[in-house]
Amino acid sequence: MQKTGLVLSACARTWKSVRMASSGVARLNPLENKVALVTASTDGIGLAIAQRLAQDGARVVLSSRKQENVDRAVAALQGEGLSVTGTVCHVGKAEDRERLVATAVKLHGGVDILISNAAVNPVFGNIMDVTEEVWDKVLDINVKATALLIKAVVPEMEKRGGGSVVIVASIGAYSPFPGLGPYNVSKTALLGLTKNLARELAQRNIRVNCLAPGLIKTSFSQLKAGSFSPHCPSQEEISLFPAVVDGQGKRGEHKRNHADQKVRQAGRLCRHRVFPVL
Length: 278
Hints:
Layout: E1 6-7, E2 35-38, H1 44-55, E3 59-64, H2 67-78, E4 84-88, H3 94-108, E5 113-116, H4 132-159, E6 163-168, H5 181-201, E7 206-213, H6 222-225, H7 235-238, E8 250-251, H8 253-263, E9 274-277
Parallel strand pairs: 2-3, 2-5, 3-4, 5-6, 6-7, 7-9
Antiparallel strand pairs: 1-8
């Protein structure tokens, strides 16, 4: 979409178009009349995913901590003729999570899809040097807030006969990035959250799956993408990261298409799966 949408890691899978089960004819708007919430969706991966869902016919509610970011992203996607609205949401605040869900219900009558993408990574360094305050912040936003937002959304999905949840974790849950200890741990926890929720929510016809992206060039991941602040690692330190990038940079369409595929699996049989996107 913009520079922040460039991808440093190439997808291991290609996007598959959804076919109508009865006729085998490709659907132009497979998510028509579906309502999707996407957190941290005014930039980077979240914005790219929101755009793709809307292109497939979903009515998308964007969210971000800052109103100006919400306004900018909504205007950009509405300018493409997409059905997109937005609201401020700090996922770590209960009142903001409630407002996000209430906004979708008020504007569109409910929620069918949730993409939980919000995360923080406030430090780079030795995990043994991480303070309790940092641990609390990372686990609060990356893990607890994710679980509580899903809890808030589930009743609305049940009213519509089911739904789909996609949690965005990280390949760091499998191959930890040096210097990002708390972040890696939080993303590993999301794998467990995915499996537990998938089992519990299956009887309610709600699918829960997980994406584990590799290194992606976004404003969030400046330390991995070559734009460094005084608190980010040096180029030499960056060389320590696992070789999961192709060195060329791929556009964000790969990542957003992969998320889009997960929320609209033909047959709706895909549950508690983790999809690495390298």
